[in-house]
Protein backbone atom coordinates (compact mmCIF):
# COMPACT_ATOMS: atom_id res chain seq x y z
CA UNK A 1 0.00 0.00 0.00
CA UNK A 2 2.73 2.40 1.06
CA UNK A 3 4.81 1.37 -1.95
CA UNK A 4 1.91 2.11 -4.31
CA UNK A 5 1.41 5.47 -2.69
CA UNK A 6 5.11 6.20 -3.03
CA UNK A 7 5.06 5.30 -6.74
CA UNK A 8 2.02 7.54 -7.24
CA UNK A 9 3.72 10.40 -5.43
CA UNK A 10 6.89 9.98 -7.48
CA UNK A 11 4.77 9.92 -10.65
CA UNK A 12 3.04 13.16 -9.72
CA UNK A 13 6.36 14.79 -8.85
CA UNK A 14 7.86 13.72 -12.18
CA UNK A 15 4.83 15.06 -14.04
CA UNK A 16 5.17 18.40 -12.25
CA UNK A 17 8.87 18.53 -13.03
CA UNK A 18 8.21 17.72 -16.69
CA UNK A 19 5.70 20.53 -16.99
CA UNK A 20 8.15 22.90 -15.30
CA UNK A 21 10.85 21.94 -17.77
CA UNK A 22 8.41 22.71 -20.58
CA UNK A 23 7.77 26.10 -19.05
CA UNK A 24 11.45 26.68 -18.59
CA UNK A 25 12.04 25.84 -22.19
CA UNK A 26 9.75 28.62 -23.23
CA UNK A 27 11.36 30.81 -20.64
CA UNK A 28 14.77 29.85 -21.92
CA UNK A 29 13.81 30.64 -25.49
CA UNK A 30 12.48 34.00 -24.40
CA UNK A 31 15.60 34.77 -22.44
CA UNK A 32 17.69 33.82 -25.47
CA UNK A 33 15.64 36.19 -27.58
CA UNK A 34 16.00 38.95 -25.03
CA UNK A 35 19.76 38.59 -24.97
CA UNK A 36 19.80 38.65 -28.73
CA UNK A 37 18.01 41.96 -28.56
CA UNK A 38 20.79 43.23 -26.30
CA UNK A 39 18.70 44.42 -23.40
CA UNK A 40 15.18 44.84 -22.26
CA UNK A 41 13.54 47.31 -19.96
CA UNK A 42 11.12 45.52 -17.71
CA UNK A 43 7.85 46.78 -16.35
CA UNK A 44 9.14 49.18 -13.74
CA UNK A 45 7.98 52.72 -13.64
CA UNK A 46 10.00 54.24 -10.87
CA UNK A 47 13.20 52.29 -11.39
CA UNK A 48 13.33 50.65 -14.80
CA UNK A 49 15.87 47.87 -15.04
CA UNK A 50 18.04 47.28 -18.04
CA UNK A 51 19.66 43.92 -18.62
CA UNK A 52 23.13 45.36 -19.16
CA UNK A 53 24.54 46.22 -15.78
CA UNK A 54 27.86 47.78 -16.65
CA UNK A 55 26.97 50.89 -18.61
CA UNK A 56 26.31 54.45 -17.57
CA UNK A 57 22.76 54.30 -18.79
CA UNK A 58 22.04 51.57 -16.32
CA UNK A 59 23.74 53.53 -13.53
CA UNK A 60 21.73 56.64 -14.14
CA UNK A 61 18.40 54.95 -14.56
CA UNK A 62 18.97 52.76 -11.55
CA UNK A 63 19.34 55.98 -9.59
CA UNK A 64 15.63 56.26 -10.06
CA UNK A 65 15.39 59.00 -12.60
CA UNK A 66 12.39 57.70 -14.49
CA UNK A 67 12.32 60.65 -16.89
CA UNK A 68 15.69 59.53 -18.27
CA UNK A 69 14.43 56.16 -19.38
CA UNK A 70 16.14 55.22 -22.63
CA UNK A 71 14.22 53.41 -25.33
CA UNK A 72 15.67 52.74 -28.72
CA UNK A 73 16.23 49.93 -31.21
CA UNK A 74 18.54 48.14 -28.79
CA UNK A 75 16.85 48.91 -25.51
CA UNK A 76 13.27 47.76 -25.69
CA UNK A 77 10.33 48.18 -23.42
CA UNK A 78 8.53 45.12 -22.22
CA UNK A 79 5.09 44.37 -23.63
CA UNK A 80 3.61 45.00 -20.18
CA UNK A 81 5.27 48.36 -19.62
CA UNK A 82 2.57 50.93 -19.03
CA UNK A 83 3.09 54.14 -17.06
CA UNK A 84 0.82 54.41 -14.05
CA UNK A 85 0.33 58.16 -14.04
CA UNK A 86 -0.95 58.87 -17.53
CA UNK A 87 -3.15 61.92 -17.76
CA UNK A 88 -5.25 63.26 -20.62
CA UNK A 89 -3.68 66.46 -21.86
CA UNK A 90 -4.25 68.46 -25.04
CA UNK A 91 -6.03 65.53 -26.65
CA UNK A 92 -3.36 62.90 -25.92
CA UNK A 93 -2.20 60.91 -22.90
CA UNK A 94 1.13 61.63 -21.23
CA UNK A 95 2.76 60.93 -17.90
CA UNK A 96 1.88 63.61 -15.42
CA UNK A 97 5.28 65.37 -15.42
CA UNK A 98 5.39 65.52 -19.23
CA UNK A 99 1.75 66.57 -19.41
CA UNK A 100 2.20 69.52 -17.07
CA UNK A 101 5.36 70.54 -18.94
CA UNK A 102 3.44 70.49 -22.20
CA UNK A 103 0.58 72.58 -20.85
CA UNK A 104 2.97 75.23 -19.58
CA UNK A 105 4.99 75.21 -22.81
CA UNK A 106 1.97 75.66 -25.07
CA UNK A 107 0.49 78.30 -22.81
CA UNK A 108 3.74 80.33 -22.81
CA UNK A 109 4.00 79.92 -26.57
CA UNK A 110 0.54 81.37 -26.93
CA UNK A 111 1.41 84.28 -24.65
CA UNK A 112 4.35 85.03 -26.93
CA UNK A 113 2.06 85.03 -29.96
CA UNK A 114 3.02 81.53 -31.13
CA UNK A 115 -0.32 79.94 -31.96
CA UNK A 116 -1.69 76.80 -33.54
CA UNK A 117 0.59 74.15 -31.98
CA UNK A 118 -1.32 70.94 -31.28
CA UNK A 119 -0.38 67.60 -29.79
CA UNK A 120 -0.90 64.88 -32.36
CA UNK A 121 0.39 61.77 -30.62
CA UNK A 122 1.34 61.01 -27.02
CA UNK A 123 1.35 57.72 -25.16
CA UNK A 124 0.95 54.64 -27.32
CA UNK A 125 0.64 51.21 -25.79
CA UNK A 126 2.66 48.23 -26.97
CA UNK A 127 -0.53 46.79 -28.45
CA UNK A 128 -1.31 49.97 -30.40
CA UNK A 129 2.26 50.13 -31.68
CA UNK A 130 1.91 46.50 -32.81
CA UNK A 131 -1.18 47.38 -34.83
CA UNK A 132 0.56 50.38 -36.41
CA UNK A 133 3.63 48.27 -37.17
CA UNK A 134 1.70 45.33 -38.59
CA UNK A 135 -0.36 47.65 -40.79
CA UNK A 136 2.85 49.09 -42.11
CA UNK A 137 4.21 45.62 -42.89
CA UNK A 138 0.97 44.78 -44.73
CA UNK A 139 1.19 47.97 -46.77
CA UNK A 140 4.81 47.21 -47.73
CA UNK A 141 4.10 43.59 -48.65
CA UNK A 142 2.86 44.12 -52.25
CA UNK A 143 5.97 46.08 -53.13
CA UNK A 144 8.67 44.40 -51.06
CA UNK A 145 7.37 40.88 -50.40
CA UNK A 146 9.74 39.06 -48.04
CA UNK A 147 11.52 42.30 -47.17
CA UNK A 148 8.28 43.99 -46.09
CA UNK A 149 9.07 43.79 -42.38
CA UNK A 150 12.55 45.15 -42.86
CA UNK A 151 11.13 48.08 -44.83
CA UNK A 152 8.37 48.64 -42.27
CA UNK A 153 10.92 48.80 -39.45
CA UNK A 154 12.58 51.73 -41.20
CA UNK A 155 9.32 53.66 -41.20
CA UNK A 156 7.62 52.64 -37.96
CA UNK A 157 9.22 51.68 -34.66
CA UNK A 158 8.66 47.99 -33.95
CA UNK A 159 6.61 47.40 -30.76
CA UNK A 160 8.71 47.93 -27.65
CA UNK A 161 11.12 50.32 -29.38
CA UNK A 162 8.84 53.35 -29.53
CA UNK A 163 9.41 56.14 -27.05
CA UNK A 164 5.71 56.83 -27.16
CA UNK A 165 5.22 53.80 -24.92
CA UNK A 166 6.99 55.66 -22.11
CA UNK A 167 4.29 58.34 -21.99
CA UNK A 168 7.09 60.92 -22.09
CA UNK A 169 7.11 61.63 -25.82
CA UNK A 170 4.79 63.83 -27.80
CA UNK A 171 4.49 64.60 -31.49
CA UNK A 172 3.55 68.20 -32.09
CA UNK A 173 2.11 69.68 -35.22
CA UNK A 174 0.05 72.63 -36.38
CA UNK A 175 -3.70 72.97 -36.70
CA UNK A 176 -2.97 73.98 -40.31
CA UNK A 177 -1.22 70.66 -40.93
CA UNK A 178 -4.11 68.52 -39.67
CA UNK A 179 -5.72 68.55 -43.08
CA UNK A 180 -2.47 67.56 -44.84
CA UNK A 181 -1.87 64.02 -45.98
CA UNK A 182 1.23 64.00 -43.79
CA UNK A 183 0.30 65.65 -40.53
CA UNK A 184 3.83 65.17 -39.28
CA UNK A 185 6.14 66.55 -41.90
CA UNK A 186 9.50 68.26 -42.27
CA UNK A 187 7.96 71.64 -43.08
CA UNK A 188 7.23 71.92 -39.37
CA UNK A 189 10.90 72.70 -38.70
CA UNK A 190 10.74 75.90 -40.72
CA UNK A 191 7.54 77.28 -39.25
CA UNK A 192 7.58 79.96 -36.56
CA UNK A 193 6.08 77.42 -34.18
CA UNK A 194 8.60 74.70 -35.02
CA UNK A 195 11.49 77.11 -34.55
CA UNK A 196 10.07 78.40 -31.28
CA UNK A 197 9.78 74.84 -29.97
CA UNK A 198 13.28 73.98 -31.10
CA UNK A 199 14.65 76.97 -29.19
CA UNK A 200 12.45 76.87 -26.12
CA UNK A 201 11.30 73.30 -25.41
CA UNK A 202 14.23 72.72 -23.03
CA UNK A 203 12.86 75.38 -20.70
CA UNK A 204 9.90 73.07 -20.09
CA UNK A 205 11.90 69.86 -19.77
CA UNK A 206 11.62 68.69 -23.37
CA UNK A 207 14.29 67.91 -25.95
CA UNK A 208 14.03 67.48 -29.69
CA UNK A 209 14.75 63.79 -29.46
CA UNK A 210 15.74 62.94 -33.03
CA UNK A 211 17.85 65.76 -34.33
CA UNK A 212 19.29 66.02 -37.82
CA UNK A 213 22.92 65.33 -37.04
CA UNK A 214 22.26 62.60 -34.47
CA UNK A 215 20.77 59.93 -36.68
CA UNK A 216 23.84 57.72 -36.29
CA UNK A 217 23.49 57.81 -32.50
CA UNK A 218 19.73 57.57 -32.10
CA UNK A 219 19.10 55.17 -34.96
CA UNK A 220 16.08 57.27 -35.93
CA UNK A 221 15.90 59.75 -38.77
CA UNK A 222 15.32 63.43 -38.13
CA UNK A 223 11.90 64.20 -36.63
CA UNK A 224 11.30 67.91 -36.03
CA UNK A 225 7.95 67.11 -34.42
CA UNK A 226 8.96 64.55 -31.79
CA UNK A 227 9.67 65.99 -28.34
CA UNK A 228 10.71 63.98 -25.35
CA UNK A 229 10.34 64.97 -21.71
CA UNK A 230 13.53 64.44 -19.68
CA UNK A 231 12.97 66.99 -16.92
CA UNK A 232 14.19 70.57 -16.60
CA UNK A 233 17.74 69.95 -15.44
CA UNK A 234 18.54 67.31 -18.06
CA UNK A 235 16.81 69.12 -20.92
CA UNK A 236 18.85 72.23 -20.12
CA UNK A 237 22.13 70.28 -20.16
CA UNK A 238 21.29 68.30 -23.29
CA UNK A 239 20.26 71.45 -25.14
CA UNK A 240 23.32 73.42 -24.03
CA UNK A 241 25.70 70.66 -25.08
CA UNK A 242 23.85 69.95 -28.32
CA UNK A 243 23.90 66.22 -27.71
CA UNK A 244 21.27 63.50 -27.92
CA UNK A 245 19.93 61.43 -25.05
CA UNK A 246 22.16 58.46 -25.90
CA UNK A 247 25.26 60.67 -25.71
CA UNK A 248 24.06 62.33 -22.52
CA UNK A 249 23.49 59.03 -20.77
CA UNK A 250 26.84 57.71 -21.95
CA UNK A 251 28.72 60.79 -20.75
CA UNK A 252 27.07 61.32 -17.42
ZN1 LIG B 1 6.91 60.63 -32.12
Commentary on this structure:
The protein has two domains: 1-36; 37-124 and 162-251, 2-Layer Sandwich (Muramoyl-pentapeptide Carboxypeptidase, domain 2), CATH 3.30.1380. The chain is 46% helix and 13% strand. It has helices spanning 2-36, 56-62, 96-111, 126-144, 148-155, 192-200, 215-218, 232-241, 245-251, and strands at 39-41, 75-77, 86-89, 92-95, 117-121, 169-174, 206-208, 226-229. A four-stranded antiparallel β-sheet has the order 5-6-8-7. It has a two-stranded parallel sheet with strand order 1-2. Helix 4 (126-144) crosses helix 5 (148-155). The structure holds zinc ion. Zinc ion binds at residues 121, 164, 169, 171, 226.
Give the integer mean of the pLDDT values: 79
Number of domains: 2
CATH architecture type of the largest domain: 2-Layer Sandwich
Tell me the distance between the termini.
Answer: 69 Å
| SSE succession | HEHEEEHEHHEHEHEHH
Computed structural class: alpha+beta
Low-pLDDT residue intervals, each spanning 5 or more residues: 5-55
What name does CATH use for the topology of the largest domain?
Muramoyl-pentapeptide Carboxypeptidase, domain 2
- Please state how the strands of the largest beta sheet are arranged side by side: 5-6-8-7
Helix fraction, binned, reads 40-55%
Largest sheet: 4 strands, antiparallel
Bound molecules: zinc ion
- CATH hierarchy, class of the largest domain: Alpha Beta
Amino acid sequence: MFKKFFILLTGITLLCLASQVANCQYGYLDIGKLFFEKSVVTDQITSPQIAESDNHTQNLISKKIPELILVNKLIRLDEKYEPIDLIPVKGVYLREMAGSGLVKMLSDAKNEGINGIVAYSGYRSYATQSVVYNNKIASQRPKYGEAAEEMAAKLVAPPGTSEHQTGLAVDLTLTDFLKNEYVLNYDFADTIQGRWLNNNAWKYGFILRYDKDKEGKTGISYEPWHFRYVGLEHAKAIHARNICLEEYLDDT
